Amino acid sequence: AVHRLARSVYGPGEPALATTLLFATTWETFNQATGKRLDPLFAAFLTVAFACFFLGAGGLRRGATRPSLLAAAWLFVALATLTKGPLAILFFLLGGGLFAAWTGRLRVLVSPGSLGGLALLALLCAVWPAMLGDSLGFEATLAAYAKKSFTTRRADILVYVANLPEQGLPWSFFFPALAVALFRRRATRGSDGLRFFLVWFLAIFVPLHFSEARHSRYLVPATPALALLLSSLWYPPLAAADAPAVLSERLRRAGALLL
Fold it and tell me: What is the Cα–Cα distance from 180 to 164, expressed in whole angstroms?
């Protein structure tokens, strides 16, 4: 999914491959892939969902919607929800909704593909509560859920900000350059692809700070978006692919090669 998004925004060949390798060589990606937790699976489902939504909404071409991909996006949101809970729906709605509003694609959210996908989401997510309620009784099931605490990890509100540089190693050395580019709006001007990556990251990064349960690995679903954003420091998006590489861009490429 990361390779497909990079190919769509930065172009095939070296840009897509380099972006995929950047994501794969990030410390948190490697750390989670070698563990035995549900977080990588949850992140994988959400990543595919965001990729399907972006491509289904037309990608870099506004108006060229693909209903099957929009429906598939909600299917993977359902799988993510069944893996780790309804936060997947919140992340996806925030990311997709902000992107649609920013780029004038709000009609995509009520298109036949999206509505069909929402129906599929409701159907899949209702199966296991219905089965549980049928076997135990709905009153007993609701009472058990009301007594149970799902907050198993607690941390300081700044845990994500504090741990992000370590999670992004070795590429976190380029976070200041990315922050400057975003502050100057160079990274998002004229590219719907970079706008999508930005809202994807923020739709996960910001709400996590307001959650009662906090752990650094909860940020894993946002790491693909961050890697895709970082790639813009070396490869301009296709909308500006004809722009010549400036000296600062060449220096950043040399630094990436050294890393």
Answer: 17
The rounded Cα 65 to chain-centroid distance in angstroms is: 20
Paired tokens of 69: 């991909």
- The DSSP line for 73-109 is HHHHHHHHHHHH-THHHHHHHHHHHHHHHHTT-GGGG
The Cα 197–Cα 232 span in angstroms is: 10
User: Residue 230's CB: how many other CB atoms inside 10 A?
Assistant: 25
Q: Which two tokens stand for residue 153?
A: 């990890």
The per-residue b/e assignment along 232-257, b for 16 or more CB within 10 angstroms, e otherwise, is bbbbbbbeeeeeeeeeebeebeeebe
Ordered per-residue pLDDT tens for the chain, 259 residues:
899 999 999 988 888 999 999 998 888 887 777 666 778 888 899 999 999 999 999 888 877 789 999 999 999 999 999 888 888 999 999 999 999 999 889 999 989 999 999 998 888 888 766 666 666 666 666 666 566 555 555 556 677 777 788 888 888 889 888 888 887 765 556 688 899 999 999 999 888 877 766 666 778 888 999 999 999 888 888 865 444 454 555 565 666 556 5
Q: What's 180's DSSP letter?
A: H
**Angle (nearest 5°) at CA 160 between 159 and 165:** 110
Which residue matches tokens 């190693």? Answer: 169
Q: Which amino acid is at 74?
A: W
